[in-house]
Specification:
By secondary structure, the protein is of the alpha+beta class. The protein has two domains: 116 residues, PSTPO5379-like; 110 residues, PSTPO5379-like fold (2-Layer Sandwich). It is 19% helix and 26% strand. The chain is built from six helices and 13 strands. The strands form three sheets. Strands 3, 4, 5, 6, 7, 12 and 13 form a seven-stranded antiparallel beta sheet that branches. A hairpin with a 4-residue loop joins β1 and β2. The longest helix has 13 residues. The chain is globular.
């Protein structure tokens, strides 16, 4: 299968399917964010932990389904997730990985094959990029896609429910919209709980602990027009904030906005 082209004009990966996106990522042709890539395909956040912490993290996800809706969990040491995609290799198929040791980010790499261990368990968590095409199909423009940017993400004062060593604040993603579009967005995304579902907050960012909307903790700032309000969804970057608090001896995550693109389709996750 040929490697799809990448576009520097709108800073997005022009892949039509999940496997096309993964092949471009695996080959090193694409290391950028995946918003807008492989439309209608489900994308996932990635957390990779030693098996000794896997049960605690599984309980953390179960207790916090809004920021951590689980799509898949691997067997220890197995880098393949056939339920999410053909020939999917978690060691090579994410545009950029973050490597954590004792809660400190020590490096960012595009391949973790040399770091792979027999005791590692992969968790794939639903991503809000998965509901962006349904929003666009509903006539809702998404500013970060129009501006060719990563989505803006923020740490909040919304607590998560702890499990074992895992605890910390919820991270949210933000998309500015007119009020009528925000109402429609609630209707569309509430049917997709496996990729965060309905927003957790609309309007004043200070009410959830965000001091400056133009200074996101992750991703890129975007233009917010005077007739728009910010709409916030729970975000799968939450585990990275939790990892910084829990300080496991070793952990690998995706870099914010640079997701695992699966073969699942967003319609497969609709809750009617």
């Amino acid at each position: 299968m040929p490697t799809p082209n990448v576009s520097s004009h709108n800073a997005s990966l022009s892949a039509k399917t999940g496997i096309e996106a993964r092949l471009a990522i695996r080959s090193g042709a694409w290391t950028g964010h995946t918003s807008g890539s492989a439309p209608n395909h489900v994308q996932g956040n990635v957390v990779i932990l030693p098996v000794s912490l896997a049960n605690d993290f599984l309980r953390f996800c179960q207790r916090n389904p809004k920021p951590c809706p689980l799509l898949a969990v691997s067997e220890p040491g197995d880098p393949y997730l056939p339920g999410l995609g053909k020939d999917l290799d978690i060691r090579t198929d994410v545009p950029e990985y973050r490597v954590w040791r004792h809660g400190t980010l020590v490096e960012e790499v595009t391949d973790v094959s040399l770091l792979w261990r027999a005791d590692l368990v992969t968790f794939v968590i639903g991503c809000s990029f998965s509901f962006e095409q349904p929003l666009i199909d509903a006539g809702i423009p998404l500013r970060h896609i129009l501006e060719g940017r990563n989505v803006a993400m923020y740490q909040t004062n919304i607590p998560t429910q702890p499990a074992g060593p895992f605890h910390g604040p919820m991270v949210v993603s933000m998309r500015p919209m007119r009020a009528a579009h925000a109402i429609r967005a609630v209707q569309v995304t509430s049917r997709m709980p496996n990729v965060h579902g309905a927003p957790v907050h609309l309007g004043d960012p200070a009410l959830i602990g965000i001091a400056d909307i133009q200074r996101p903790d992750f991703g890129d700032p975007v233009t917010i027009l005077p007739n728009e309000l910010p709409v916030f969804w729970a975000c799968g970057v939450t585990p990275q904030a939790v990892v910084m608090e829990a300080k496991p001896e070793f952990c690998i995550t995706h870099a914010p906005g640079k997701m695992l693109v699966t073969d699942l389709l967003d319609r497969d996750l609709l809750f009617s």
